[in-house]
Amino acid sequence: MMMEKIALRSRMWLAGAALSAFVAASPAFAVTPADTLVEGFAIDDIISVDPAEAFELSTAEVTGNTYDLLIRIDLNDTSKVKGDLAESWTISDDGLVYTFKLKPGLKFASGNPITAADVAYSFERVVKLDLSPAFIINQFGITGDNVAEKAKAVDDTTFQFTVDKSYAPSFVLNCLSSTVGSVVDSKLVKEHAVAVTPDADHKWDNDFGNGWMKTGYAGSGPFKLREWKANEAVVMERNDNYWGEKPKLARVIYRHMKESSAQRLALQAGDIDVARNLEPNDLNAIADNKDLATVSAPKGTVWYISLNQKNEKLAKPEVRQAFKYLVDYDALGSTILKGIGEIHQTFLPKGDLGELDENPFKLDVAKAKELLEKAGLKDGFSVTMDVRNGQPTTAMAESIQQTAAQAGVKIEIIPGDGKQTLTKYRARNHDIYIGQWGQDYFDPNSNAQTFVSNPDNSDDGKTKTLAWRNAWDIPELTKQTEAALLEKDTAKRAAMYQELQKKALEESPFVIIHQQLEVAGLRANLKDFKLGPSFDTNFVSQVSKE
Amino acid sequence: MSAVEQQAGARGSGRALAIAGGIGRFLLIAATTYLGLLAVTFFIGRVIPIDPVLAVLGDRAPESVVERTRREMGLDLPLIEQFWIYIKAALNGDFGTSVLTTNPVMADIRRVFPATIELATVGTLIGTVLGIPLGVLAAVKRGSLADQFVRVVGLVGYSVPIFWLALLALVLFYAKLQWVAFPGRIDIVYQYTFTPVTGFYLLDSALQGQWDVFWDVFRHIVLPGALLGYFSLAYISRMTRSFMLNELSQEYVVAARAKGLSETRIIWGHALRNAAVPMVTVIALSYAGLLEGSVLTETVFSWPGIGLYITDSLQNADMNAVLGGTIVIGSVFIAINLFSDLLYKLLDPRTKVR
C-alpha cells in the first residue's frame, strides 16, 4: 500500500516534469515576420477579386491596394480627385468628352507596358460583363454596343471617355475613381479569356477573362495580389514595377478571422499586427495596453431607421417627424456607438462634396407626443421593426424601442438573419427597418440617388432605391436630384445637395442616426498605419515596422 | 441511441440474416436516408425567407443584374423542376458552385473536410484513451471520491457551452501562458512553404520529415483537439461507467470471483471486453458528433474545417455550400452509424451464432 503511494507520487512528479519541459520548450512571445504585415480581418464577404465584378467592402480594400486607376480621390481633400495613372486630363467645352493623358513608361506587375488600349479594354469588359458595379459606368449612357466608341484609345497614351449628357465634371471624375475603373493588363487577361456561346444575357463570344479574374490578378498597384483563398487569407506582395513610391513592407497578409474576441487575443499575443473587426467591448479591453493602439476613420456609411410609407400610420408627415424626436442620439453616441460611430443625421456622409453638418434632432418625447396628437394618434400605436441579429443593430433597436414607448409607440422587434431582413425590406414588406447604407462611389449623387430619388414608385419600379423600398413617392425631389447631376459649377452643385438634405431632414421617412467609424486595433510597433475615408482607400503601402 | 435500438432490432430478426444480407439491407437504409436528407435540405433551403440572389450579388446590385442572375440560377423555374435538377446533379456528386469561394462545393469540401477529420480524430483519440480508463475506474470504485470526480468531469463536459470553454482556454493557454499557437492550423510562416498532400497536416509533415512544421501544426491542434477530446471524454467515460456497472453486476462476474480470478483479470479481461461491444457504438457516435459538432470550436479557433465553412456560408446565405456541407456531414454520419453497426456484429459473438 505504502509502496503504491510512493509509486503514484513519483509518477505524478514525472508528469509534472514533463509538463514543465513542455513549457520550457515553447517559444517566447510570438511575432510576425519583420517584412510582413498580418491583419486579422473578416474577409468572408469576398466573392471575386475581379474589379469588374467585386462590389464588397473587403474586396474594395484589396483592389485599392493592388490596382491603379486613371484618377483617385485626393485624400487631402476628398471632394477632389488627383491623377493616378493619368498625368493630366481635359474636358471638352460641351462637357461630353474627357481626355486623359497617361504618365510615361508605366508597367503592369507582369512587366507588360500600360497603354491607353489597356484602359479602353478595362472599360469594355466592365460594360460588356455588366456585373454588379457596372452601373457606375453604364449610367453615362454607355452600353456594350457603343463602348468601343465611348471609351477608346486615341493613341498609346491618350484615352478618351465620352458621356451622353453634360454632367457635373465632379460627378464623372468621382465615378471614374471607384474600383470599377481599375485598369487591367489586357494582354494577360485576354490570354485567360474563355470562349462562350452568346445568348440574350451575354451577347459576346468570350468571358473577358472573368472566370480567371475571379481569383486571378492583372494589375499594376503598389502591391500585387499573390493569392486569395476563400475564408482563409488574402496575400499581397510588393510590386517592383509600381510607378510610384514602393511599399515599405514586402508582404501583407489578411488572415480570415471572424470573431472579435479571437482577433483581440491574437493581437495581444502578437500573432497578428492589426485586428480589423473589434467590437466595443474588445476595444475597451485593449485601451490600456501600452503595446497596442487604435486608429479610426469615418467611412461613407450611414445608419438609419426607415418608415415604410405603405403603412398608413407611418405615412403621416407628423409621424415621420415624431420618430426623429424619439431616438436618444446622445445616449447612443456615448454608449453603444462609442468608438464605432459618430452621430450624423443627414444622408451625405462627412467628406462628401456638399456634406451638411447639421444634427437638429434630439430626444424630445413631449415634442413627439405633440406631433402624434396632431396626426390623430394621441394614444400611440403598435408597429413592427425588422432587426438583423448582431451589434450594434440590436442594441440600437432596443434603445429606440424604449424611447418610442415613452410616447406610446409600441415597437415589436422582429429579429432575423441579415439576408432575411434584407429580403423582406427589398420586397417592401416591413414596417420599420433598421440598417446601414454605404455609398457606392465617392460622390454625393450615390446617396442622393438612393435616399431622395424614386423615379417610379409602382411595385415593379425599375429603380429600386431606398426611397422606393419605403414607398416614398417624391417626384419633385427626384427631379432636383437629377438637376444636381448636371450642375457644372461645383459650388452650386454642393449647395443643391445641402438643400436636398435639409428637405430630407424635414420630410423624409429616414431617421438617420450615425455615420460609421471604422476602427482597428494595432501593435504599437507599426508606423503609419491609417484607415482611409472609404474602404478602397485603406492603403497599406506606407506602413512599416519598428 | 437509435443505433443501439436498431442493433437490438437487427439482433432479434433471426439467425438467417447473414452479414452479407445485412450489408445489403443497410445500403438500402442508407440510400433512403440519403434521399430523405437531400429532399429535406433542399426544401429547407428553398422555404427560408432569404432571396438566394441576394447572396450572390449583395444588396447593391442594380435590378437588371438581379433579374439576369435569377434566370441564370434557374430560380425562375417551378420548384419541383428545380428539385429534379438538384437531385440529378447531387447524385452525380455535384452540389453546384459556392457563391463565397466561387469553387465547386465538392472541391471546397475536399479541401476543408480533412481539417475537421484531423481535429475530430485527435479529439476522439484523447477522449477514448482517457475516457475508458476513467469510466472503468469510476465503475469499479463506485461511490468513491474518484467516481464523484469522474461524474463531475462528465457533467461539466455535458453542460458547459463549448465556445465558452474554448475562449477561456485560449485566454489561459494562448494569451497568458503562450503554450499553444493560434489561430488556424498552421503558422503563416509555413503556410507558403509547406505543401500538404493528404490534407492531414500532422501526417503530411511527418511523412515529409518536416519536424518543425509538425511541431507547429501540433501546437495549433493541441488546444482545440484537447477541448473536443474533453467533450468526447465526458461522454465516453459516462457511458463506460454505466456499461461497466451493468457488466460488473452480471452473474459471470460473481462466478469468476468465486473461481478466484484476480480482480484485474475480471475487470479488464472479462467485464471490459463485454462492455467493449456497445462502446464501439458510443465511440463511433462520439466521433460523428465531433465531425458535425465542431462548428463552434472551429469558429473560435479560426480552424478552416467544414464547420467554419458551413458557418461562413450560412452567414452569407450561400445555400449551395450549406446544403452540400450538410449532405456530406449527413452522409458521413450515416456511414459511421452503419459501420459501427457492422463492427458490432463482428465483435459480438452472439450475433454470429445463436
UniProtKB/TrEMBL annotation, chain A:
Record flagged with keyword Signal: yes
Family matches, as CDD domains: PBP2_NikA_DppA_OppA_like_7
Signal peptide start and end residues: 1-30
Record key words, sorted: Signal
Listed InterPro entries: Peptide/Ni-bd, SBP_5, SBP_5_dom
Domain spans labelled Solute-binding protein family: 80-458
Chief location of this protein within or outside the cell: periplasm
Subcellular location: Periplasm
Keyword Cytoplasm on entry: no
One protein family per Pfam: SBP_bac_5
Protein family membership: Belongs to the bacterial solute-binding protein 5 family.
Name of the featured protein: ABC transporter substrate-binding protein
Species for this entry: Ollibium composti
UniProtKB/TrEMBL annotation, chain B:
PROSITE patterns on file: ABC_TM1 (PS50928)
Membrane topology: Multi-pass membrane protein
Residue intervals of the ABC transmembrane type-1 domain: 113-344
Keyword Transmembrane annotated: yes
InterPro entries the record matches: BPD_transp_1_N (IPR045621), MetI-like (IPR000515), MetI-like_sf (IPR035906)
Transmembrane segments: 26-48, 119-140, 152-175, 217-236, 271-290, 321-344
Keyword tags: Cell membrane, Membrane, Transmembrane, Transmembrane helix, Transport
SUPFAM superfamilies recorded: MetI-like
Localization (cell): Cell membrane
Family matches, as Pfam families: BPD_transp_1 (PF00528), BPD_transp_1_N (PF19300)
Domain of life of the native organism: Bacteria
Sequence similarity: Belongs to the binding-protein-dependent transport system permease family.
Protein name: ABC transporter permease
The organism of origin for this protein: Ollibium composti
